[in-house]
TrEMBL record:
Keywords: Coiled coil, DNA-binding, Repressor, Transcription, Transcription regulation. Residues 76-103 form a coiled coil. This is MerR family transcriptional regulator. Residues 12-71 form the HTH merR-type domain. It comes from Galactobacter valiniphilus. GO terms for molecular function: DNA binding; DNA-binding transcription factor activity. PANTHER family: MERR-FAMILY TRANSCRIPTIONAL REGULATOR, REDOX-CYCLING DRUG-SENSING TRANSCRIPTIONAL ACTIVATOR SOXR.
Length: 253
């Protein structure tokens, strides 16, 4: 059974303009076009649209979504994986929500929130696999040793700095600042200084070229991986961070 574009718009909340854009970039093609030019979508097209919307909600950009869909594979297995991704994202959000509620409750009772509770849901070990894959087990080992050697107070301070940096990026993106502007480039410098403080990474021990490659690789990961993007307010914020860091090294998007 096929559905007219207007019905798909009504059910999905996706605008007709967005559907036409997805078509223009080859992401979602209508199954047929009626004599009057109206696009129609069958069950396979609707399932593909559902997958696009799921991946968008997880923070992936359209190029990354296109690559994921082009990879093929079993459709049911892909849908199950999407369901698992949404469950993991829900769990992360619930952990962060509980941390915010802790802060609210503490303030309402005239207390300072416990820092160890405030930043739950921001665990450096969540990204250990990415560190190993991109920069080797030795880098991951040195970073973990550094983390494990820290007192709880220093860990809390580091997580506080990470959260503050993420919020600064989110605010700058929401304000619509120019990624090449002086204020935002100062934020990029602050970001690089923060990365240099983490032992075992190219930012800490490599030269300028290693730092450049490392930071640009991270910038792409911020956009492609919803776990990273969430630290900067989602895909839009992560894209702003990437554009700013690329501008820092003289590149344009």
């Amino acid at each position: 059974m096929e559905h007219a574009m207007r019905d798909v718009v009504r059910s999905s909340g996706v605008t007709s303009r967005t559907l036409r854009h997805y078509e223009s970039v080859g992401l979602l093609l209508p199954s047929s076009t009626a004599a009057g030019g109206e696009r129609r979508y069958d069950s396979a097209a609707l399932l593909r649209l559902q997958r696009i919307l799921v991946l968008r909600s997880l923070g992936l950009g359209l190029p990354a979504i296109g690559r994921a869909l082009a990879a093929g594979g079993d459709e049911m297995e892909a849908l199950r994986e999407h369901a698992d991704q949404l469950v993991r994202e829900r769990e992360r959000l619930e952990t962060r929500l509980a941390a915010v509620r802790h802060s609210i409750a503490a303030r309402e009772n005239g207390r300072d929130p416990e820092m160890s509770e405030m930043f739950k849901g921001y665990d450096h070990r969540e990204y250990e696999q990415e560190v190993e894959q991109r920069w080797g087990k030795e880098s991951a080992k040195r970073s973990n040793e550094w983390w494990e050697s820290m007192s709880q107070e220093k860990r809390d301070g580091f997580q506080h700095d990470a959260a503050a940096l993420g919020q600064a990026w989110t605010d700058a993106a929401a304000a619509g600042w120019d990624p090449r502007g002086e204020e935002v480039q100062a934020l990029a410098t602050r970001h690089l200084d923060w990365l240099r403080a983490i032992p075992g990474t190219p930012a800490a021990g490599g030269g300028e070229e290693a730092l450049r490659a490392y930071v640009l690789g991270l910038a792409d990961m911020y956009v492609a991986d919803p776990r990273f993007a969430a630290n900067y307010g989602g895909e839009t914020g992560a894209g702003f961070v990437r554009a700013t860091l690329r501008a820092h090294f003289g590149l344009r998007d």
